[in-house]
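User: Could you go from structure to sequence for me? I need the amino acid at each position, not a summary. Structure tokens:
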């Protein structure tokens, strides 16, 4: 049995393990999974991302949790918190995000996990507010934000995405600690 920090009905949330790297790298190199990102990631870029995730955990005590599907006790992606590395009128802030294997899409897992993470973040870390953002064309993630109770707060041009990219215009959603 994995050492979960918390659970939802179908998901277990934990820190990252060495065995997560290869399935995560497969996800990050999949064009379908990375459709709303500027590019897929190489194995080395994925390793660097996991290092940043683990460093965030060490520095902040929370992060992008490795997520397992409880029914099979297998890694299926991440859901959790990060601190954006760019400046905008809403930063610094705590962001919630998710990335799941396409094999588990369409089952409400992102929404279930996001809702559980929001609850955990508010209760355990007392975040005053949590934001989420994505490309304005990423309807699936926007639906997750809305179903998780987040409210539309505006649009912005993501400073790390090049001018002219269809991914540059982003929506911002927020939710305050109840």
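Assistant: Here is the amino acid at each position, in order:
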């Amino acid at each position: 049995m994995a050492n979960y920090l918390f659970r939802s009905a179908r998901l277990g949330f934990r820190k990252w393990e060495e065995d997560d790297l290869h399935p995560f790298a497969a996800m990050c190199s999949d064009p379908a999974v990375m459709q709303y990102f500027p590019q897929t990631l190489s194995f080395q870029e994925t390793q660097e991302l996991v290092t940043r995730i683990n460093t965030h955990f060490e520095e902040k005590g929370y992060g992008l949790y490795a997520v397992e599907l409880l029914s099979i006790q297998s890694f299926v992606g991440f859901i959790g918190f990060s601190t954006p590395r760019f400046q905008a009128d809403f930063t610094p802030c705590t962001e919630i995000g998710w990335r799941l294997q396409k094999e588990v899409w369409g089952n409400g897992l992102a929404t279930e996990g996001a809702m559980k993470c929001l609850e955990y973040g508010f209760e355990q870390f007392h975040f005053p507010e949590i934001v989420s953002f994505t490309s304005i064309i990423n309807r699936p993630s926007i639906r997750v934000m809305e179903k998780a109770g987040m409210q539309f707060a505006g649009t912005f041009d993501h400073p790390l995405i090049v001018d002219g990219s269809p991914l540059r215009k982003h929506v911002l959603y927020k939710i305050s600690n109840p």
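One structural detail worth keeping in mind: Residues 145 and 173 are 7 Å apart (CA to CA).
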